[in-house]
Amino acid sequence: MKCVLSIAGSDSGGGAGIQADIKTITSLGAHALTVITALTAQNSLGVSAIHPVPPGFITRQIKAIVEDRPPDAVKVGMVFTSAAVKAVSRMIASYGLSPVVVDPVLRASTGILLLEPDAVRVLRERLLPLATVVTPNLHEAELLTGKRVRTLKEMERAALEIFRMGPRVVIKGGHLKRESADVLFDGKEVTIFPGKKIASSSTHGTGCVFSSALATFLAMGEELREAVQSAHDMVRKAIRGGYSVGRGAGVVAPYSAHRFEGLK
Known about the structure:
Number of helices: 8
CATH architecture: 3-Layer(aba) Sandwich
Strand content: 15-25%
Strand order of the largest sheet: 3-2-1-4-5-6-7-8-9
């Protein structure tokens, strides 16, 4: 069985973070290995507190996993602190882990920072050069480039700029106004994965599902473009299967995606 390692924060509400990664990886028939980088106190209304895991213990978690069963792919999500970014980057480089999908989780949908401001530079300089592919949303692409990213054309320009930082790039367009297209730049050409807007308030966890699905499809041998299409389709199906768990935003359901086979 393929093993996919998720290095990410814990969502006590169960909709995003490492919980979403486990559900996604498992639903695709792979085994989820996990390294927790931070604990969050959150529910459907938002994040109320964050407790970072010490970098040394993040290192111990990675070492324990890799020295027993090296993963077939790695997904990196929320890391929160500069020291944690450095620790994760050092371990990825030391063990030569690949492929690596980086979901640059910078801010929660409610506005709270999930990556300390001084850690953005460290992420650009230390982690992105080690990544196979990075998967920012529009806001994260703006923070990485320092430029406006609100249209399909601006997504294409941002993808080319982020590519210069090291990885291939998928910019997720779920926040576009009129459509829901993802943009891939693989170092040679731009590919657009179009999609109509899905009317749903159950979208919590979409970025986590996309990145962990992408890592899993890569682990299973799909080429990057094929894996992006597979992850794009899975997220759309998971949104359609989303449900409410509290008084706030509902969550996506990656494990129910098979119910919508063939639905794009």
